[in-house]
Amino acid sequence: MFGKPKRLQPDGEAAYQRKPTHYLLAIGSNISPRQHVVQSLRWMHASFLSLRVGCFYRSQAWGMDSRRTFWNGAVEVRCEDDVRTLKQQLNEWEEITGRNRQNPRCSVLDRTLDIDILWSDAQGWLCAEQQVRSTPYLASPVSSLVGEWRSLPGTRALTPVPFMFNDRLLGLRPVNLKPYANYHHAP
Question: What is the CA angle 66-174-160, rounded to 5?
């Protein structure tokens, strides 16, 4: 199963586990967002070593022609997968919910689920940090998890989205759903 600790066996030596990598992910949906965001959190809770869910916000579509409102949020996770393996898993989850990543226009079409890797402690920013900081639908959710961003202009302009997950209210403040020992925050 994806995300579970892997046991490696190097030349007969005792098995060991690879050090988990810490990731900051962005989640978005504008087709049945309550259903798809909650489903993505179920998969993350079952697959990752830790899961911290930040705030979620409603926003209008950016860079695409759509009348559907997006839910956008950010999560911090730890897993033993490298960036490439994690991205493959996230893409698979998107496709399971109905997103067609083979469509050349998929980046400008409505989506059931869109999960992007923004940062990892192994590689740093995987997209332009300034783009994240200057884009409200990314900056607002990330600012809920990354304290020094709280004073950024425009990060409070979007409407928060409260929702339930496993009998817990999410979306309004960061919540550790699956704490990790020796937990450290993203950048």
Answer: 35
* Other residues' Cβ atoms within 10 Å of the Cβ of residue 22: 21
Give the number of other CB atoms < 10 A from CB of residue 9. 9
Does the pLDDT of residue 8 top 50, yes or no? no
Query: Cβ-count burial of 152 within 10 angstroms (0-12 exposed, 13-18 middle, 19+ buried)?
Result: middle
User: Distance of CA 150 to CAs 49, 60, 95, Å?
Assistant: 27, 21, 33
185 with 76: CB under 8 angstroms? Answer: yes
The CA distances from residue 104 to 62, 63, 164, 184, in Å, are: 18, 15, 34, 38
Q: Minimal CA–CA distance to 1: which of 41, 45, 39, 53? A: 45
Query: pLDDT tens for residues 152-171?
Result: 455 456 889 999 999 999 99
* Ordered domains of the chain (ranges, CATH): 21-178 (3.30.70.560)
The whole-angstrom separation of Cα 44 and Cα 26 is 13
Q: Please tell me whether the overall predicted TM-score, pTM, comes out greater than 0.90 for this model.
A: no
- How many CA atoms, within 13 angstroms, populate the side-chain half-sphere of residue 122? 15
Q: Are 74 and 139 in contact (CB under 8 A)?
A: no
